[in-house]
Structure formats: C-alpha cells, structure tokens
Specification:
Pfam families: EndIII_4Fe-2S (PF10576), HHH (PF00633), HhH-GPD (PF00730). The protein has 13 helices and no strands. The chain is mainly α and about 230 residues long. The relative contact order is 0.12.
Amino acid sequence: MKRCLDDVYPDAHCELDFTTPLELLVAVVLSAQTTDVRVNLVTPALFKRYRTAADYAGADRTELEEYLRSTGFYRAKANSVMGLGAALVERFGGEVPNKLEDLVTLPGVGRKTANVVLGNAFDVPGITVDTHFGRLVRRWGWTAEEDPVKVEHAVGELIPRKEWTMLSHRVIFHGRRVCHAKKPACGACPLAKDCPSYGTGPTGFDEAAKLVKGVEKDHILAMAAPR
C-alpha cells in the first residue's frame, strides 16, 4: 500500500504556502478548524505585514484579528500567534527551533504541528497525524490506536524513518482526494486490492470516479481503472 501511494502521489507536498519556518509554523496554527486553501488566501497579506516573531509578539490585536477573521476562531488564533511570537523571542532568540521537544513547548503547538514544521521546514522526518491520517491508517488496518501519539509511534514502526514526512503527505493527499470520511471512492481507488475496508464506499468504477477530487484526478483514475 505504501509503494502504491508513492506511485499515485509522487509529488505530494505540504499544501500550506510558506517560505520560512516561521511562516509555516504560523500557517499550521491558523489551519485549525479550516482548510489549507483558506489559510493560503490569508497568509500573503499576513506574512507581508508580520515578518518576524517580534512582529507577532508586538502586534496590535485588533489589526491582527482582522487579518485572521476569515479563518474562523480568529480571536483564539490571534492569541496563539501573539503568544507564539512572544515565546520565540523570549526563549529562542526569535527563531523557530528545529527540535520536537522545543517546538511542543510553544503555545498552540502540539506534536502534529511540530512534525509538520520539522518535516517541511527542517527536513527532519516526522509523521503528521491529522484527522485524515488517523482515519486512513485505521481504515487500512495499520493500527487500531485512536490516540494520535500512539498512532504516530505505531506507524513509525512500520515505515522507515527517512520516509515519514512523505508518507504523511501521501496519506493526507489520499484522504482528501479519494478515501473520504463518509463516502470513500472505493471503486476508483488504486489501493483497493490491498484495502481491508474495500466496500465502505461505492465499488463501481464509474460511480466512485465521480467522488475523486483534485488536480491528480486523471492520474488516479488511470491507475485505478479496470484492466
């Protein structure tokens, strides 16, 4: 299944736009309870206005909230981002640390966020257990664990460490494009022959094909089409 994911999504990547570790950290914090697409609409102006951790720490709350309003829960997110900036200035010289144990001490940063930042900003392998990842690996029988930290460790034992970050991207891509929570596109899934949950969604190719999303749709359908 992992080799199939490699073939289906060779170009999988973090779908949040960023150029620096700080930008990625802020974008991941903002992505809670909203989509990466929505965050990417907000961050160009935000990153132009706030360039450093000190900028976030000293932000005018009302102004910052206006930048964040469309992401939802904007007051809480403004609190998180300002607290994040202050903690980075006070404890890390304004720089984003590149160690898990340091990142998770920052306000609003858990293991999921830390692993996204480590894997994509610092090339430190990490498994990102978001809702898609957890749902799919349980659906596939890779683990029965519900707790994200236990899922992370269980899957980490199955897959070589150097491949953790790309595995995370590919599983998340598959969850967004094919293996949906309520109605997975089983009949148009390249992983179908190895999936113990095949049949959770429609198994007819034509019906399932209508459920497949994303710019990779044609490639996915070509790999899954009946021979």
